[in-house]
Amino acid sequence: MVMPDWLSNLSVWVGEIMIGVGVVSDVIAAIGMLRFPNFFVRLHAATIGTIWGAFLPLVGVAILSVGADYLGSYRWFMGGGALITAVLILILGPAGSHALARAAYRSKAAKVEPKCVDHLEEHIRGEERDRNA
Amino acid sequence: MEMSSGTKIAGVVSMVIVTSVLALAIAAGGLGYVIPPPHLRSLADWYLKTALNPYLKYFTVNSPEAVTSIVWDYRGLDTLFETTVFFLAIIGSIALMRGIHIDVKELKECCPTGMSPIVKTVTRVTVGMILAVSASIALHGHLTPGGGFQGGATAAVAPLLVMVVFSLYFVSKHGLSEEKMLTLRTAGLLGIAFTAFAALIIGYAFSTHAYVFQNQPKAEAPVGLPAYMFNALTSGTLIFFNLFEFFAVAAGFTIVFLLLSIPEVIVKKHSGVSEE
Asked: Is residue B1 part of a domain?
């Protein structure tokens, strides 16, 4: 498949920009992990690292490798692998952080702070009241 | 003891300097030789030239993957005993947990539910993918990096995930048991043993010489397993070793994961430790 020059240049540029945004997000996520005060807020920083710092650059690698003719025919394997990994991270990252947050909340291992409203707590209390009634 | 920030900075700077000086010295040949060596060693050269070389009929393994060739052919006996060590470790963990069995009824009373529906849905999607990737790693072990052990270890992640996400009760209810996995594990090991003796058996049948753990024909031992089957490169014994090792390792790891995920309450009850 032969691509016009402007299109392959564009895809390389877009891919490189996405990888660059990923690097910046990873640095931000790392700073957040170190500086944020408690578990739930730190978990927020960690998920920035998985989505903006892993999913986005992997999609960037896929776009870049499609346009990078100088990589030869192996660029299709590279791009396909990157795309599949990106989709897997997109599904698995949120599920993992959800499981962590849920476990920490239910086992009362971490305090929810700062908090304005906690519907889950009200729900659990309601369940307990129903059980006792 | 509270360190002042000046001391901390001095510590970090001195560590960085020591590491850099050491790295520079080693890179410049401080150990008496340069790392990595500038030329291929003669042993590596030999492996690269013989692993897939139809012109050296008595020396080749007929596999483009040099690592698997070394693991299951050039040093095959070593790998066999590695597998045995792993099997002994599994036996050891079963012996440690003797008397503690997985009872579906007890599990239903104690902990019948798994994690939230979100995690369960995601696991349903990924378990099939994990099994597909593991089969690919194992069955292409003689063509691309990977092999039976790596494939088996990957495959064992699938039951582990289901155990953690859907609960041990769920997998026990659907028929996954320690005994079944042990049977599969033993069948895999028997397959490995049989493959090791395959050339010898063929040699006896045609009354010629053959070696134990022989793959391709050797001088004065013209017996060998087919390098091609159904027009596909299978590299003689390598694909069989990888296949059987895949089952043995996957089942072995699953046994350990099953034993590790038995709830503490049940372990205490079966082993007669009273609840304090």
From this structure: no
